[in-house]
Amino acid sequence: MPNDNSGRRRFLGRVLATSGSLLLAGCDRLSQTEWFPNVLSSAEKLTQAAQKLIVPRNAMAQEFSPADISPEFRSNGTSNPSNPVYQALAANGFKDYQLRISGLVEHPAVYSLAELKALPSRSQITRHDCVEGWSAIGKWQGVQLSQLLQRAQPLASARYAVFYCFDPMDAQGTTYYYESIDLDEAYHPQTLLAYALNDAPLPVKNGAPIRLRVERQLGYKMAKYVMEIKLVDSFSDIAGGKGGYWEDRGYEWFAGI
Amino acid sequence: MSQPHSLASATPPLYLRHTLTIRVMHWINVMAFSLLLLSGLQIFNAYPALNWGKSSYNGQAPLLQIDAYRDAQGQLVGVTRIGGHAFETTGVLGVSADANGNPSVRAFPAWITVPGAQWLALARRWHFSFAWLLVINGVAYLLYALASRHLSRDLIPTRRDWRSLGQSIWDHVRFRHPQGAEARRYNILQKLAYLSVIFGFFPLVILAGLAMSPGLNALLPGWIDIFGGRQSARTVHFIAAWVLVAFVFIHVFEVMVSGLWNNLRSMITGRYRVPAEESDHAKR
After folding, report:
1. Residues 6+ apart with CB under 8 A from A187
2. How far is CA B135 from CA A31, A102, A184, B22, B174, in A?
3. Cβ-contact A140, A213 below 8 angstroms
4. Residue A162's domain spans which residues?
5. pTM above 0.90, yes or no
6. CATH code for the domain in which residue B39 is found
7. What part of A 190-209 touches B (C-beta under 8 Å)?
8. Cβ–Cβ under 8 Å, residues A177 and A48
9. CB B125 to CB A250 under 8 A?
10. Are B70 and B139 in a shared domain?
11. Both B49 and B139 in a single domain?
């Protein structure tokens, strides 16, 4: 009886080890297919629908006290765009910077940095959650995107705000960072075009002169170095068609989780 | 005793131990939890440190950090830091072989992550898909356990169970398991282990996971402070997941020592053979 059992256990051990490596190999093979990641990403739709259902449209992200501010606000991704146009603007303290509002709006507009700073502003101490897993807390000041949208008057057909950025994401300078959010998020009171971080002008490494804050989503939604905001009815014909630089590389468009 | 009785004890009867619903839910849970663990370790690799507090940058060192450096010879060395202590963990944690067998910098090795290669976006897709499956299956299980009285009949300890606590611990230490009629019911340690997983660690790992969602944070600003903040929630999520892994190891161990095939059959076909009462206890 004991011998019989130990033989069975050895056999079971081998079965477990083999099925373990088969499981991993199988998962990797599924990961490589076209269809399986698509099946997996149907969970994204479920997550988005669930969050839209239970989180009120204007529910506020948590705000913190000055004591919680991170000593250093980490820079991730591009820290200094190699784009010569951007470099020239930065060299001149962004005096010639212009933010363009375009696309499906009644009144397309162009704002200088000084004009943006002259508008009523909002300050908020919020937590920035990177998709990688880390968080940092900073104080942001900027103009609410909702103000600019109220002035621009989006057409009824507008469904998304697309943010075009200065930072090239490859050596050739053919691919640029971009992002998109829906109008619920665009009109949210905490959605800012931020020009100040921790009571100082926004540093280049954190997205100067203007970076987007979308406090209920992950960090990659919050485009840095914003140069144009375009209202569209669909982003399927922009770049990879998934609504953002990282989305085109497999990350979720709905980054609320 | 009488002839029929001794015949019956010579070939103990099979009985239906687990209903089809429980069996299906059990194996869905096995699959979902396995894939959540493996994809979770891949997600951890994107930021291989655990902090305590609201943010990762609060002037305090991480509780756990898995990283790598190059030594004087240019060789990659994996280091795991826990509290103030550093351990060299090259080959497993910090530095391990990639698909071509070359040393690469990664916290958890490819043989324990899904996908194997460093690929955060796809790991998140695996993770959130199977998280939905685990939660839906878990809620269905709870409803079923309540409605079918599985919970009250089989899992909630009775007064008699509590009185047998000392004896049950002593039995487990000696790897002795109930026989005869007693084997038809869960023992007290078994009940407590299952209840702590069903009502303790699974809800905890799910809640701590949801606490990391910036969208759900807005549901009631500040609710995640019950964990001490988002980075604490991430740490709790990680630890609770490993507690569940520890449960699985103990569970599988107990399955093996208390009759591997009998237990396995009962969770596949539902049929369990009640172990015969041994007349001579001195045999052991």
Report:
1. A145, A146, A149
2. 23, 43, 28, 15, 36
3. yes
4. 62-249
5. yes
6. 1.20.950.20
7. none
8. no
9. yes
10. no
11. yes
DSSP A206: G
d(CA B21, CA B29): 12
Closest residue in B to A251 (Cα–Cα): B121
The residue out of B75, B106, B137 marking a domain boundary is B106
Tell me whether residue A26 is in a domain: no
Mean pLDDT over A56-72 rounds to 96
Mark whether B185 and B96 lie in a shared domain.
no
Q: Tell how far CA A187 is from the center of its chain.
A: 16
Strand ranges in A88-175 using DSSP code E only, listed in sequence order: 98-103, 109-112, 122-129, 135-144, 160-168
Query: In this structure, are B190 and B172 located in the same domain?
Result: yes
Chain B residues in contact with A27 by the CB 8 A cut-off are 35, 38, 114-116, 126
Q: Is residue A33 classed as helix, strand or coil in its secondary structure?
A: coil
Number of domains in chain A: 1
Mean pLDDT (10-residue bins), chain B, 284 residues: 46 89 98 98 98 95 96 96 95 93 94 94 97 98 97 96 95 90 92 98 98 97 96 98 98 94 95 77 44
What total of structural domains would you count in chain B? 2
Cα dist from A11 to A102, B44, B252, whole Å: 67, 33, 15
- Rounded to an integer, what distance in angstroms lies between the CA atom of residue A46 and that of residue B130? 12
Q: How many CA atoms lie within 13 A of A139 on its CB side?
A: 13
3-state secondary structure of A105: strand
Range of the structural domain that residue B162 is part of: 3-57+112-283
